[in-house]
Specification:
The complex is a heterodimer. Chain A is of the alpha+beta class. Helices cover 35% and strands 19% of the residues of chain A. Chain B contains 15 helices and no strands. The chains are: A alpha+beta, B mainly alpha.
């Protein structure tokens, strides 16, 4: 089936349970809003005829001002709408926290294309394939300006920033092809920086993966880069330079020279590679050179995948490469 | 108290060739360009912003033309990007922000509080020259080849990647900011120090309250955009890393600075419109405004809360989840003072003695469109809904309902309401009503389909779009042609009335307020005798029910 619309659609296809709930939220909110506003419109229209100059009507009114009526039309609509604030905030909160075990796909934005990298090492330009029923978290970064990845069928979008990872997760449940757009204005070809999200049944997805052409996983590719960029020269156990081993580093607190600790997450590892001077690690002399302008965002994500996998007893379910 | 006390009784009613009315005391171009009369400066602004409105509207027309086809075959992508940028920059900074405050505010504020001019008349003229200098830079950027950043100037696109004349346009906007600040300062000082004897705070017309609140926003918010844009210029010109991560900067910082000004700027555009409506509705209902104090306080409340909601433009940019929730909640709170206004206007109409003349038609259109625009803002403030419709045509439709449906209709309503006072001439009422109707219909046909487009998932600033969105886009463009006619009509018949219109009496609407107690047009110093205020605002005759 196809989620790309036709000209007579007035409602977009919904490809996840969360998208359906978004629709419920806006429909319910619209109903309450209509309840609050239709009477105003009817009243204004009615008054316009009833009290038109020259029309006989009872126009007597007292000078007394009722604070009660003012307070009631301040408070009652506000309290009614607050229900929707909570509903929207609860959904938003759920959208911020991917469930554990979500499959991570990397998304790299640049003027004017998207690149997606899968855990198995496959990569695609402007096309994204995901299976139904499996939570997927997109870890996103831009190589140049601010972009945003927007998937209307899932009712979600997230900015894709240069220099900072952002996440967006979803669990699709309706196979089909759907639009994916860049929704943050990014220059000349902003409006053609899009592609297709293909949601597939798990068996079809495995079939697609096996034909998408990759013999190394993302982490294994990262391991190759770890040597070729020279990281291994210092960070391998038998090195003559005193540099910390990165085995088991991911997710651990790292003590800082300035005191305190910082969690070794994707952002920390990326920043440490590009701007090592900014965070000095306690107990080590800062001798690491900057790799800014040398390692591109897609390779950084491969390196992170490698460091993440190294020292993990059980890697991600889809991550089968050998550990160092 | 007689209404003739403040006009020169030697001048017959409806005479515009009176020697001392502000239009006729002097006639030379020099006397206009070097004037310190707040009324003439108001007219100078009116002429200038009408010119900028035409430029911005032509750009909008070309944008709507481009979107008739989905494949972007009418212009290049770069040309399209420049068109919507010109439309946004010109409409926001050179039309909407100065629209009501700098024209009606300048002309009416001193008259409404019973004084002969603003506190600093020469500073007022300087504000206009600063405004025009800023406009010169912005227009130079357009003529030189345009800019393609969008009116939001997001970094690092604007600082590192854009090929347009960004610095020239930024300088234009920075300069215009100083004009806003000086005008705001002038208005605040005038309201505090120049009110006529007896003109207490709670005798001021709501229009004065809204201009006062707007002036506070001018003073408090504008410096922030000035600084933010100067930093952009520094980064673009000298590669000083502030916003571009490649230079060690943070692009989200710019978004914070930009919206810290640009959200309050929405209220710079909205509050004066509310003020205009609060004058028109009682006048054409011949009834005291309902809940005067609540409306006045709601004005101040809006001007305050507006400083605490900027983060609702940034729900999906990676800002802290809890910051987003706080901004969402505070944005819901904005609905309270807004609702106060709408309900009170409705209650004012109730049991009034209604005349559905042109200004009142605009006012009623305003109420409808403002309600729709405001409430779709509540949807956008709802976090999970914004995740879907953020940066889509839904947002475009929402803010056009506020800016065009709200501010523009209020501006035109006010222009018709005070036209006899400004010019001493009456416009043709039938043409006025037809135009108001055309604008209302054209506006809705243009922008309502954009709500649907946005919910269907069409992102904004898209030159090329999926073909299934074409039908709604054509509908929107068709509406824009009706809208264009609705704009052209008033330009023609209002100009026509300057020479051929009937002479206006001092108070053609039987309205209350000091501006209706002086001649049309007012004398150079506004009143023959300085007024003493011994009456309440909107003191229309009460129709008290008879007691049994």
């Amino acid at each position: 089936m196809n989620g790309i619309g036709n000209p007579l659609d007035i409602w977009p296809a919904a490809a996840s349970a969360s998208a359906v709930e978004s629709d419920m939220l806006i429909l319910a909110f619209t109903a309450v809003i209509l309840l609050l506003t239709v009477p105003i419109f009817l009243a204004i229209t009615y008054f316009a005829f009833r009290y038109r100059q020259g029309v006989a009507a009872d126009r007597t009114h007292s000078e007394a001002r009722s604070n009660l009526i003012e307070l009631s039309w301040m408070i009652i609509p506000f309290v009614l709408t607050l229900f929707f604030f909570f509903w929207g905030a609860r959904m938003f909160d759920a959208h911020r926290h991917a469930p554990p075990g979500a499959m991570q796909i990397d998304a790299i934005g640049r003027q004017w294309m998207w690149k997606f990298q899968y855990p198995g090492g496959q990569s695609e330009i402007n096309d994204l394939h995901v299976p139904i029923g499996q939570p997927v978290v997109l870890r996103m970064i831009s190589q140049d300006v601010i972009h945003a990845l927007y998937i209307p069928a899932l009712r979600i979008q997230m900015d894709v920033l240069p220099g900072r990872y952002t996440d967006m997760w979803f669990k699709a449940d309706k196979p089909g092809s759907y639009h994916l757009f860049c929704s943050e204005y990014c220059g000349t070809d902003h409006s053609v920086m899009g592609g297709t999200l293909t949601i597939m049944a798990p068996a079809d997805y495995q079939d697609w993966l096996s034909h998408a052409g990759s013999d190394t996983t993302l982490g294994a590719a990262g391991e190759v880069l770890f040597s070729s960029y020279g990281c291994a020269g210092c960070h391998k156990g038998d090195s003559t330079v005193r540099a910390p081993s990165l085995v088991g580093l991911y997710g651990k607190p790292v003590p800082l020279e300035a005191g305190g600790t910082v969690e070794a997450d994707d952002q920390f590892i990326r920043d440490k590679i590009l701007t090592p001077d900014k965070t000095r690690i306690a107990g080590y002399k800062q001798v690491m050179p900057s790799f800014k302008g040398i390692i591109a965002e897609d390779d950084l994500l491969r390196l992170i995948a490698y460091i993440k996998a190294s020292g993990q007893k059980t890697g991600r379910a889809d991550d089968h490469h050998s550990l160092p | 108290m007689t209404t003739t006390a403040y006009r020169d009784t030697a001048v017959p009613h409806g005479t515009i060739d009176a020697p001392d009315d502000y239009l006729h005391v002097t006639h030379t171009l020099r006397s206009w360009l070097l004037t310190t009369d707040h009324k003439r400066i108001g007219i100078l602004y009116l002429i200038a912003i009408t010119g900028f409105f035409i430029i911005g509207a032509i750009a909008a027309g070309l944008v709507r033309l481009a979107l008739v086809v989905p494949d972007g075959s009418i212009f290049t992508n770069d040309t399209y990007n420049k068109l919507f940028t010109i439309h946004g920059v010109v409409m926001v900074w050179f039309f909407l922000i100065p629209s009501i405050p700098a024209t009606f505010g300048n002309f009416l504020l001193p008259i409404m509080i019973g004084t002969k001019d603003l506190a600093f008349p020469r500073l007022n003229l300087l504000s206009w020259y600063i405004f025009m200098s800023g406009a010169l830079f912005a227009m130079a950027a357009v003529v030189a080849g345009g800019i393609d950043t969008g009116w939001t100037f997001y970094a690092p696109f604007s600082t590192t990647y854009s090929n347009g004349y960004v610095i020239l346009a930024l300088v234009g906007v920075i300069v215009v900011g100083f004009s806003s600040i000086l005008t705001g300062l002038n208005f605040v000082v005038t309201v505090h120090t120049m009110r006529a004897p007896g003109m207490t705070w709670f005798r001021m017309p709501i229009f004065v309250w809204t201009i006062y609140a707007t002036s506070l926003i001018f003073l408090l918010a504008t410096p922030v955009i000035t600084i933010a844009l100067i930093l952009l210029v520094m980064e673009r010109a000298f590669q000083i890393g502030i916003f571009d991560p490649a230079l060690g900067g943070d692009p989200v910082l710019f978004e914070h600075l930009f919206w810290f000004y640009s959200h309050p700027a929405v209220y710079i555009m909205v509050l004066p419109g509310m003020g205009v409506i609060s004058e028109i509705v009682p006048a054409f209902s011949q009834k005291r405004i309902f809940g005067y104090k609540f409306i006045a306080y709601a004005t101040i409340a809006l001007a305050t809360i507006t400083f605490f909601v900027w983060g609702h433009h940034m729900f999906v940019n990676g800002q802290s989840e809890y910051a987003s929730m706080s901004f969402s909640f505070l944005s819901f709170a904005v609905a309270v003072p807004s609702a106060v206004k709408v309900y009170n206007w409705t209650a004012t109409i109730h049991k009034g003695d209604l005349r559905l003349d042109t200004p009142m038609l605009y006012a009623m259109g305003y109420i409808g469109l403002f309600v729709l625009g405001g409430l779709t803002g509540l949807f956008l403030a709802t976090l999970a809904i914004d995740e879907h419709v953020h940066d889509t045509y839904y947002v475009v439709a929402h803010f056009h309902y506020i800016m065009v449906g709200g501010t523009m209709l209020a501006f035109l309503g006010g222009l018709h309401y005070w036209w006899p006072k400004f010019t001493g001439r009456m416009y043709n009422e039938a043409w006025g009503r037809v135009s108001a109707l055309l604008l209302f219909v054209g506006f809705n046909v243009t922008f309502f389909p954009q709500f649907l487009l946005g919910y269907l998932g069409m992102p904004r600033r898209y030159h090329v779009y999926p073909p299934e969105f074409q039908l709604l886009n054509i509908l929107s463009s068709a509406g824009a042609t009706i809208l264009a006619v609705g704009y052209i009509f008033p330009m023609v018949y209002l100009l026509w009335s300057l020479w051929f219109g009937k002479r206006a009496p001092d108070n053609p609407w039987d309205a209350k307020g000091l501006e209706w107690m002086t001649t049309s047009p007012p004398p150079l110093h506004n009143f023959k005798t300085p007024p003493v205020v011994d009456f309440e605002p909107y003191d229309y005759a009460l129709k008290v029910p008879e007691r049994d």
